[in-house]
Amino acid sequence: MALDFAPRILRVSARAFVSPLRGATGLEKDGGNPVTIFLPMMANDDLSDGSSVSAEMTANCRSKLAQSCTWESIVIELVGVGCNNKKNTSLTRFRFYMPSGEEISFCGHAAIGACAFLANQSSILKAADLSSIDFGTSSLPSSIRFSAEDGKYDALVRGNEVELMMDTTHVEADCSQMENAPSLQDFLSEIGLTTDDVQLQANSKLGYQFPTYLNSTVARPKTLICIKSEERLHAATSPTDATKFHQMCDAIKSTGIYLYSHAGVQLSEGDESVFECRQFPKSSGYAEDPATGIAAGALAASLYKRGIWFDSIASEKKNYDMYQGRAMQRPSRIGVKIGTYDEDGRIALSYKGLVAFDSFEYTD
Questions:
Q1: Do the bridges between strand 92-97 and strand 73-77 make them parallel or antiparallel, or are there none, so unpaired?
Q2: Using CA atoms, how far apart are residues 306 and 211, in angstroms rounded to an integer?
Q3: Is the pTM here over 0.90, yes or no?
Q4: pLDDT (tens digit, 9 = 90+) per residue, 311-354?
Q5: CA pair distance 262, 320, nearest whole angstrom
């Protein structure tokens, strides 16, 4: 039976897809996309040994918790039954929320953060200083399986690094062909750019036509726009009129604009395909997103579909690294690996990211 309230709630503040320090060990300070993880508990639960099963809550109660957050949040229900050391056959359930209290079907960085927490909850809840947690270096990952509104998912967790697997359908739509759609220039004007900043023609050096003004989705539609240089990418500003921007996104059935630049990609053998990205969401309660898993996945899928990747070693799987959040001083890295992609758009992909934990508290 779902509770309209929980006698006790664990609230964990984390950041997912944190960028590692370049040329050094450790993580970028303040990097990653913030997520609040909620765990509703029965009154006498003790989660520090990793063995507790959480309570279920009503939608109204979950929504109120979400509205107390500045960024996305996740409510974990039935915890303790989706890990590889548990015998219960029920699946841990993830419920994803926007700061407005709206429940959404999936949120990549929230799922990454929650999986890292479940695999490390004993260490986290016993730590005196979360910044110095020893996540260990075991070569054997923890396996997490969970359900969400749109299906079941598996993740592998090694310390604070999570690889989340997804089998889905990739769908594209050319925004310029949509009836009564705003123009590409209309969107660029809202974020301080012009068509001179956009890579509209095939790259003369590489010969690739990068997708631009294209809706791409592996979960929710994101509109891809290829920018000529990282300098111009970071010259973009938040939408000047949030209401107008929301309406424009609705007109092309998009949940946000995903700018990306391929400038500076490494072409030597074995290097992954590297892109610098920024996302301006339609309506998330904030103007820009520091790391957007489903947008990175959509971009990787559209690039892969066009044969665009730069790791030249023979491999059936293609890897992409999407860097995001640098303009916000929240440096993030989203790893995306494409496994299979068939002629009907069915795609197997995985997300890889590092997670940092900032604080936790219990509320009664």
A1: antiparallel
A2: 9
A3: no
A4: 544 455 588 999 999 999 999 999 999 999 999 999 999 999 99
A5: 11
